[in-house]
From TrEMBL:
Organism this protein belongs to: Rhynchospora pubera
UniProt keyword annotations, A-Z: DNA-binding, Membrane, Nucleus, Repeat, Transcription, Transcription regulation, Transmembrane, Transmembrane helix
Subcellular location: Nucleus
Domain HTH myb-type as annotated: residue spans: 146-200
Chief site of localization: nucleus
Membrane-spanning parts: 110-130
Biased composition (Polar residues): 226-235
Protein name: MYB transcription factor
Record-level Gene Ontology MF annotations: DNA-binding transcription factor activity; sequence-specific DNA binding
Amino acid sequence: MSENTVVEHISRVTLHQPNPTIKTFLLIPKDQAGDKKRSVLCFNLQAQLIKTACAERKLMVADKGETRKGPWTEQEDLQLVWFVRLFGERRWDFLAKVSGLSVGIFLSDLTILALFSFVFVLSCAPYIGLNRTGKSCRLRWVNYLHPGLKRGRMTPQEEQLVLELHAKWGNRWSRIARKLPGRTDNEIKNYWRTHMRKKAQEQKKGAASASPSSPSFSSTVTTTSKNNEVQSSEIDPTENKEAVNGYNSVDQFWNEITASEAATQLGFDEYKEIGCYTNLSCSSITMPYSPVWDYNPEPLWRMDDEEFSEMIVPDLAHS
DNA sequence: AAACAAATCAACCGCAAGAGC
DNA sequence: TGCTCTTGCGGTTGATTTGTT
């Protein structure tokens, strides 16, 4: 970061669906640190900055050595959610690396300053040091953190469908999972192993002894569904949430995202028009954009420094 | 209440396919 | 064409939870 600039305050780092935007954070030149009205800069930084920086500025991504294994902590989950929303559900290896980013670059101009500031935000608690493999990140996201996942037991309908599709396709779990929205291949696989296989075996045994030449598929379904109805009715709906096992704060995290989605979204121009960049209480600049790998032939930071300065702080640019 | 067994499920591993160079 | 890298899939493991005696 420029030696002449101090990060005085980070008002809020939050996310929007479907794409996150780092909201307002404030950079104050040291010599004007007391004069917020004049000197505050509000950046709306896009993930594109990171991509461009990596490609063109040879941003170094530090190798943090040994990757973590084992159960994910709540903090890691939050961090992963953050980075997936930022970069999209691809390039897991990149995501895993960039999420443990530590950078040292020398800066002299405003756009790089913006970039560094972005990196600074990435480095801030609580989003520090996700040190997992891309594979592990993907697995955690797909099987646990994805917002579209269902929680709780399989419904009788789902159970029947699993049985039918398994009879049709065998252990093609991902294929089966595609027919059950909100269920993962891992979940179905586990479920099959514990419930269905046992029942199928029992049924096979029973059918073999009764009528070896014509195993009855439909009776298996009926039995299974009945059992499951009983089990389902015993479930306290309030316990469904508990099934997340201590990850209520992730739910809260998503709730916050959903809530923020409903908030007013100002384009940068609108934002500029009403002069929010000088107002500390004005919290957000939001520009719609896609995840970084799909987006943006003209990254923000290609803008001329002069133009950029003028847009952000006209009175500073003209001084 | 304690001990044990069974069930559950998150997470790892190895392999294969596809993309990019 | 072959190599490397990334991603996705299916099998498996092992820790934790739940049920039973």
